[in-house]
Amino acid sequence: MQIRAPAILIAARAHGETAVIARLLTEEFGMVAAYVAGGRGRRLRPVVIPGNLVELQLSARSESQLPFAKLELLESRGPFLSEPLAAAAIGWACALTATALPERQPYPPLYDALGALLGAICHAPSARGWAGAMVAYESLLLRELGYGGTGQRPQGELPEILAAMDRLAPALDHYLLADRRGDVMAARSRLRDLLERILR
């Protein structure tokens, strides 16, 4: 198996002394897991950050083997992780995607929507510019996996967007994160709390 494609890095877990097991979302091949040698080293550490857009080169001898990946940074989200609200939003969007999606099933609308959402989080002048897109992404994820949801961006100001977030929470919890919700839903709760502080 040989793959070369742009990908959004959505999760990275330390493996051994210097390697990383990365999960990456591609448009054509869906979510793939791969071994990244030296992923915790000085050269690759800034590349292996959830939310980053990378050029992925994947190779494996067989379908059953964990592929090896080479990553080249295309767009970094690292500079935005020093801002708590942006960091929480990037963390939640990536954690939800990594937890909910099955491997190697393509979802081109989700790839496009996640890329657009991450771009909005990093470049909108305030959270009001991307909070509705976050709710639309959550809803699209539910729809693409067969659990309803519209993918439509909620209309209105931040209070209406927070109300829409609250309405979606049970579906996310029940359908997408049923056996793994602890840490993942905690990330969403933190994001919602930070958004609510804007109103105070």
UniProtKB/TrEMBL annotation:
Coiled coil: none annotated. GO terms for cellular component: bacterial nucleoid. GO terms for biological process: DNA recombination; double-strand break repair. It holds the Pfam family RecO_C. Residues 1-70 form the DNA replication/recombination mediator RecO N-terminal domain. InterPro entries: DNA_rep/recomb_RecO_N (IPR022572), NA-bd_OB-fold (IPR012340), RecO (IPR003717). This is DNA repair protein RecO. It comes from Croceibacterium atlanticum.
